[in-house]
Every structure is written in structure tokens, then in C-alpha cells.
Amino acid sequence: MSKHTIAWLPGDGVGAEVLEAARICLDALDFKADYIHGDIGWEFWCREGNALPDRTLKILKETECALFGAITSKPRDEANEELAPELRGKGYDYFSPIVRLRQELNLHTNIRPTKAYPGNPLNFKEGIDIVVFRENTEGMYGGVEFHPLPQSVFDALSAAHKKMKKFGAFGLDNLAITLRIMSRQGCRSIVREAFKFAKRHGRRSVTVCDKPNVLRETGGLMIRTAREVAKEYPSIPLYETNIDAQCMWLVKNPFDYDLIVAENMFGDILSDLCAQLVGGLGFASAGNIGDNYAVFEPTHGSAPKYTGMYKVNPIATLLAAKLMLDWLGENDMAVRLESAVAAVIAEGKVRTYDMGGKAKTLEMANAVAEKIKGK
Length: 375
Ligand code: IPM
Ligand code: MG
Prior knowledge:
Helix content: 40-55%
CATH class of the largest domain: Alpha Beta
CATH superfamily of the largest domain: Isopropylmalate Dehydrogenase
Number of strands: 12
Number of helices: 14
Bound molecules: 3-isopropylmalic acid, magnesium ion
CATH topology of the largest domain: Isopropylmalate Dehydrogenase
Order of helices and strands: EHEHHEHHEEEHHEHEHEHEHEEHHH
Largest sheet: 10 strands, mixed
CATH architecture of the largest domain: 3-Layer(aba) Sandwich
């Protein structure tokens, strides 16, 4: 095995703790890598007005992929209050660094596996195995937003669409707009990635989820594009669902779904729902995948109230490391890591607080590492 070069991005909150756990397991696998630390997270926003400094982006350019811990994300007003006083009022604007990473590196595909590992006391039902493919750079996450609404935007929209005029009565100061911008290319790419994955992994169906009965243009584009792509894969059926019903059906009969593909925001919502079916965010990993780079992460947040307590479940991060190994072509190690995680869960001796146990973050990591080493 050649030596890999990995950007190591702990972030803030419990991010450093879960990455420490990942490192224990990667070392147990004898995965050979240089880990290059990158600054990212809340403290860099507060101190520098930039949660994702340029020096970190430079590190990403010099590495094969990144493993990311967690970051704190706060709405703009709260973010401004925590900015260093000398930086306030100078035009600094908080934007989630993980969302920025996805967009600036064009990590267009967010893959989120949710599998019920046998014996996990938190499984909603045994046997659930759903993968969510989330478009990762467009939709409402695109960041094109207005508040108050500029007159020029109001005028342009009013000229283009008769339904806009009635909103003018509220006054531009009272209007906020977040645009849901979707491209045919973006829709095609995420659906194609989903089908490619389905074919490679012998998945039985792909479900495209949106809301085309109301969001007729964006939702319509997604569904039409999915139908076109599906023709390239005649052996895999494409099902179509609306986001609201999809949420209900996932709870009612999760076994009807194998692989769900959605745009950015709906994919965000669906992936949390699917995560809860298999134990919650402590088990939910994600790969943000582009053409030449990828960032792997647990999908949970920074859990500020647990920071420094080594309390949170590191399994989501271990599964993110597993996704990273797969992406790097280290498939044998990926299988060994996942099997070790599954074995520890099945055995039920080492459980973190979310699983009803008392084990700490690194105890869980060490239990997995022991299994890797065959002890
Ligand atoms: C996720 C998270 C992020 C998102 C947040 C932290 C910005 O919820 O990765 O699912 O909304 O994408
Ligand atoms: Mg989310």
C-alpha cells in the first residue's frame, strides 16, 4: 500500500474527540498516511472572521482527501455577536464552512449510508439499509438570499412573474427570499451517481424524492431529469416520491427503500430521518465527493455541551473513515473497519451513552481497534 496524504480537519466542539477515535482505528488497520492538520471552525470565525481560512484551502489542494470532525454553525446574528470586536462591522459574514467546502471544491455528491447494524439497541427495525444521495452544491444551499429585498430584485421578479406583485404590499424590508436554484447538470449528476452506485452494489431500486406537485419548476426538473437518466439503467427501477409522503413512508415501511436521491435541502432532511431509523446521528456518516477530491465526515454537529467530555459516540466518524478508505481504494481495510464496528455493536459490551451505556468515545474506538487486530 502506498502512503496516503490526508487533510485532518477536527473542527470544533467534539470534532477533535471523534477524530482522535478515528485515528486509533486507522492506526489499528496499519493505514499508512501523513495527516496534515487544517484549521477550520468556530474559533477561526471569532478570531479571524473566516471559519475556513485560505491556508486550510491550500492544504486541501495538497492532499488526496480530508477527514472532518464537526463544526458549530450559527445563524448570522449570533455569529456576528461572537466576532472579535475589532472585526465587527467590516463586512465579515458567517457562512457554514462545511457548506463552503462542498461548494468551493465542487464536492457535488453527498453519499449518506444508513444501515441498521444488527444488535444496535437504537435500531428502529433490524435490517434497514438505505443510502441517501444528496445533491451537495445547489438548491437552497446555493446562498443566493435577500433580506431586505432590493428594489431591483423585486422589480425584476414582478416583471417576470405576476404572482410576485402581491408580496410588494408587505414592504421590501419585510420580505426575505432564499432562492432554490437547481441546474439540469446538477440533477443529472446526482441521479447518475445514485444509479452508478446502485449498479455497482447490486441495489434493487432508486427512489427520486422531491415535491414536483408544488415546486413545479425545480421539482419538475429533478423528476424529468431522473427519468432520463433512469433510461440508461433499464434493469434498475426508478420510483418517484414527494418529500412529505416519503418521510411518512420511511417510518411506515423503511424496507421499501434502498437508495433515495434528492436535491440538497430535501436530502439534508431525509438523511437525518434515515439516520434516526438506524440509531441517530451517532451512526450517520457522509462522503462529500467531487471528481478529484472528497471530504468525509460524521453528519452530527459539534455538540458544544459535550465538548471535552469524550462522551459522544464515535461510530459515525469511524464509518466516515470507512467511506474514506473505500474512496481511496483501500477496500480491504474498509471492510475490516466496518466489520469491527459491526462486531462491537453486535457484542453489546461497549456502548456509548446514546446506546444506553457508559463507554466513553475512546473506549468505543479502542474496542473497535481490538476487533480490527483480531483480539
Ligand atoms: C449536514 C448538516 C449541515 C447541512 C449543516 C451543519 C450546515 O446538517 O451535513 O447535514 O445542513 O448540510
Ligand atoms: Mg443535516
